Amino acid sequence: MAEYSPYLNPDWPDAVWDVSGAFTNDRELIAFHDFCRLLLGFEPFNIVHGAPLCIWNSGRVLKHLMCTAEQMRTAGLEYEKRNIALYYTFTNLRLEEQHMSDPLGNALLTFATKHNPTGRNAVIMANDTLYDHVKANHPELRTVSSILKITNGGGKGKLDVYKRLAEKYDEVMVHPDDVLNYELLEKLEEKERYILLVNEYCIRHCPIRPLHYNSLSEMALNFFGYDSGAFDARQSTNGCRDIGTLLTHEKHSVLALNTPEITTLRELGFRHFKMQGRGHANGSSILFDLLRLVLRNDSPSENAMHSLGQRFWESILPYNPS
Question: Does residue 92 have a pLDDT over 90?
Fold first, then answer.
């Protein structure tokens, strides 16, 4: 039997954590990784995903995703030093051949090819034109089918669609609603090739998810000129921002998984769990979920882990004697 660190969450000590925040929350992620590695003796995650603002990026197209070329390179090199794999979220649905010459996207692909100590650097995609471009020019990079691909391709709940994607891609993201479709999940073969999102804060069975993804892809192609009014009007009546819907609605409550649900997924044979969070204003939500999911929680008779968590928060805050 494998031996695991006593600081790891005992419910899923062998989980492979895939954490959001590359090129947006790099300081916080690297600080947490070093804290666990140097103080607790284990590496809390070995994959980080994200992308700076460019036309290939979709998912979350926000102003704070803008960063300089030097910042991107520095972040990438820091992840390389720690053998953390980079998964680029190049998930724009609406890319065409004319977009394949994008200088930033291609520069990032070249960087990931040259700085790939684990051999696991990958590109998460939803567009067939980009897939062909990556396979032709950077065959060393792994390919991942995006949630946008399964959502806007009408594959939710369809076993045959997941099987076809698994034949084409190295790994496949499971639709957030299908993460709780245990009957479907049981039928998936090679479960290590499927990635399950565990902290999705959108509502379950969201009726406008395809529209949302399409609007984000359009925005990425015209960031400064895109008019989001039509989508905003739909979202305002969808329940996404209503706390009552998120917490108590029988069908549409928040999709973030609880401990029994994640435990069930592990018992089914899944190990690759993804944490979202790159669309938030700062890294605090990502760090909160890392502390909550990766580390062991205190038992009623101790507060050692709480103390360690407090030490971590203090380690990344600027010193203020007042």
Answer: yes
CA distance 307 to 286: 19
Pick from 263, 265, 288: nearest CA to 275 = 288
With bands split at pLDDT 50, 70 and 90, how would you rate the model's confidence at 321? very low
Rounded to an integer, what distance in angstroms lies between the CA atom of residue 257 and that of residue 178? 12
H/E stretch holding 259 reads helix 259-267
CA 277 – CA 21 distance, rounded (Å): 7
Tokens of 146: 């995006």
Could you report the per-residue pLDDT of 131-150, keeping only the tens digit for each? 999 999 999 999 999 999 99
Amino acid at 84: I
| Alpha carbon distance 150, 157 (integer Å) | 9
Helix/strand/coil for 145: strand
Q: Is the pTM of this model over 0.85?
A: yes
Segments in 36-127 forming alpha helices (H): 69-81, 103-114
Q: Do residues 293 and 9 make contact, with C-beta atoms less than 8 angstroms apart?
A: yes
- Per-residue pLDDT, 280: 65
Q: Where are the alpha helices (DSSP H) in 48-173?
A: 69-81, 103-114, 128-137, 147-152, 159-168
Q: Which residue has the higher pLDDT, 255 or 275?
A: 275
Cβ 40 vs Cβ 308: under 8 Å: yes
- 48 sits in the region (left: phi over 0; alpha: psi -120 to 50; else beta) called beta
What would the pLDDT profile of 14-48 be if each residue is shown by its tens digit?
999 999 999 989 999 999 999 999 999 999 999 99
Q: State phi, psi for 240 to the nearest 5 degrees.
A: -60, -35
Please name which of 62, 63, 68, 74 lies closest in space to residue 30, comparing C-alpha atoms. Answer: 74
